[in-house]
């Protein structure tokens, strides 16, 4: 009998093929800015104004002309009081204006002296005088008009995922609404007759379904609308029916388990019957088998949902999701940055046995700035991923020893 396993391909080849195949979803939505957290911008945000819109003070104190206080201890009359939100008058020659953080600098003033360096000399009438007990440089404590954002500048390009700071910046330039991509609709199901749900009795031979929880959470974290179709039994007819149901509702179908070439692995024939499928062996550890294809939508012959079948082992499905499904979802969302940033860090352990495949080890940052290894790297041990802060990306065939620099991808780069 011929070997049914397809040849190994590299992670980069597999990723390239996935990203070539999928295109950003066409639908966009316009949302109030405060409801756009986690969404991806479909249209850039451009500023119609300078930020700050005018020169203003970053300190409570006195606005004056630096040239008027060339000697220490100069006394100036206080000619006006300028709280934040009020536009003062042009500064009378040889005077100072009492001013408060955020207030616009009065015309004619070119510096602010903080109140801690001044002495207020009150008078029976009027605003009194101020003694300036510090040397003053023109421009000091002034936030310049446009120093954050210049009028006309693109502050957030299309493809930006909107985090807290990005929403704040959009608001700073006055954007009340943002145009974002619609959420990808992703159908999810787990295969395996051994699976039961937490809360159900654990019958002999059964295990709890963990992938359903992990994958659902990963999808939600990426801003997908999850259509959770539960557990599908290891039968061809049931698997085909689940695929049709999923394709009718979703842009992308994600499954776990059943993509090896065992007799109980029905996903391959099911997807082949309902669409088209490639079974890939990816040269990574954990996570070798991956299925990629498409499932026809029942109503329309030419429309289809993408299909990605992940391996069943919990760490394999988590890691392959992070490395291969996440970029696909980002592509569907039209995001700019598809690949995670990685950092060179010091390994604080030896890795004496090379593997033929590129390995993604579960490691944790220690307080000395190095990386520690979780002792059990088995693809079934989900505790490793909870303990870890990220993945050490070790090239195929490579050993290393304590103190060497290695490539580290933090989970924070892989989760959103
Ligand atoms: P499979 O890819 O279906 O051959 O499954 C590989 C291994 O992962 C087996 O030990 C399964 O029991 C386990 N597994 C499959 N699906 C899940 C799941 N949803 N949750 C936890 N373990 C699973
Ligand atoms: Mg199975």
CATH topology of the largest domain, what is it called? Molybdenum Cofactor Biosythetic Enzyme, Chain A
**Helix/strand class:** alpha/beta
Helix content: 10-25%
Largest sheet: 7 strands, mixed
Extended strand count: 27
CA-atom Rg in angstroms:
30 Å
**In order across it, which strands form the biggest sheet?**
1-19-21-22-18-14-17
Mean pLDDT value = 95
In the CATH classification, which architecture of the largest domain applies? 3-Layer(aba) Sandwich
> Distance between termini?
44 Å
What is the CATH domain class of the largest domain? Alpha Beta
- Percent range for β-strand residues: 25-35%
General form: elongated
Uncertain residue ranges: none
Q: What ligands can be seen in this structure?
A: adenosine monophosphate, magnesium ion
Fourth-tier CATH superfamily name of the largest domain = MoaB/Mog-like domain
């Amino acid at each position: 009998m011929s070997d049914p396993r397809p040849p190994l391909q590299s992670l980069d080849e597999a990723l390239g093929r996935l990203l070539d195949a999928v295109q950003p979803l066409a639908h966009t939505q316009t949302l109030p800015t405060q409801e756009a957290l986690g969404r991806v911008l479909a249209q850039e945000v451009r500023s119609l104004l300078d930020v700050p819109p005018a020169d203003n003070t970053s300190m409570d104190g006195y606005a004056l002309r630096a040239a008027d206080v060339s000697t220490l201890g100069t006394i100036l009359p206080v000619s006006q009081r300028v709280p934040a939100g009020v536009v003062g008058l042009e500064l009378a020659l040889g005077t100072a204006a009492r001013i408060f953080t955020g207030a616009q600098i009065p015309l004619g003033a070119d510096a602010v002296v903080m109140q801690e360096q001044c002495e207020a000399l009150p008078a029976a009438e009027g605003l009194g005088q101020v003694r300036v007990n510090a040397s003053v440089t023109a421009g000091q404590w002034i936030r310049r008009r446009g120093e954050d954002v210049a009028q006309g500048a693109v502050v957030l390009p299309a493809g930006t995922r909107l985090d807290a700071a990005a929403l704040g910046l959009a608001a700073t330039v006055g954007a009340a609404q943002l145009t974002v991509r619609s959420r990808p609709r992703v159908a999810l199901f787990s295969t395996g007759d051994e699976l039961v749900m937490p809360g159900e009795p654990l019958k002999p031979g059964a295990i709890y379904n963990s992938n359903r929880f992990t994958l659902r959470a990963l999808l939600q974290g990426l801003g997908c609308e999850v259509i959770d179709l539960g557990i599908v039994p290891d039968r061809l007819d049931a698997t085909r029916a689940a695929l049709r149901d999923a394709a009718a509702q979703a842009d992308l179908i994600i499954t776990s388990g059943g993509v090896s070439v065992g007799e109980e692995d029905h996903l391959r024939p099911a997807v082949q019957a309902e669409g088209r499928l490639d079974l890939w062996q990816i040269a990574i550890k954990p996570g070798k088998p991956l299925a990629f294809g498409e499932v026809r939508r029942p109503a329309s012959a030419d429309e289809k949902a993408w299909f990605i079948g992940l391996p069943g082992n919990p760490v394999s499905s988590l890691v392959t999701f992070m490395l291969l499904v996440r970029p696909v979802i980002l592509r569907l969302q039209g995001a700019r940055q598809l690949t995670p940033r990685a950092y060179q860090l010091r390994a604080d352990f030896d890795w004496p046995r090379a593997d033929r495949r590129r390995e993604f080890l579960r490691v944790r940052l220690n307080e000395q700035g190095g990386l520690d290894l979780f002792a059990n790297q088995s693809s079934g041990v989900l505790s490793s991923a909870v303990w870890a802060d990220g993945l050490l990306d070790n090239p195929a065939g490579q050993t290393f020893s304590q103190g060497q620099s290695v490539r580290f991808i933090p989970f924070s780069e892989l989760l959103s």
